[in-house]
Amino acid sequence: MRILGLLLIAGLAGGLYAWWSHDRQPDLHPDDPRVATGDAGIVMLAAEWCGYCRKQQGDFERAGVRYRVLDIDDEDGGRAMRALGARGVPVTVIGQAVVRGYDTGALDEGLTPLGYDVY
What we know:
- By secondary structure, this protein is an alpha+beta fold.
- 46% of the residues lie in helices and 14% in strands.
- Strand 3 and strand 4 form a beta hairpin.
- The radius of gyration is 19 Å and the shape is elongated.
- The model has no long low-confidence stretch (mean pLDDT 89).
């Protein structure tokens, strides 16, 4: 009987924790670009030597996407890469979503609700 009581208490505690934490935003590192993007901002981590970065930037320019570029070879871009745990570029932050690589499907999924028709 005691075991059932302990299991019931543990289950209730777990349920309360899940309910309390489900709407909480994760604590982000201060260098994480998601701190500044809010729900609709766009930041692209890129490098001049990256062909896919240049291609994506061209796509964004043609479609009139308003975004900010952080060069990973600069101090701010390098810190942002480390904060996201990214290992390659491009990395695009759309609101709170992170798109790794030149993934046109994922980019389109994030940009369309913001009114952009890129892909």
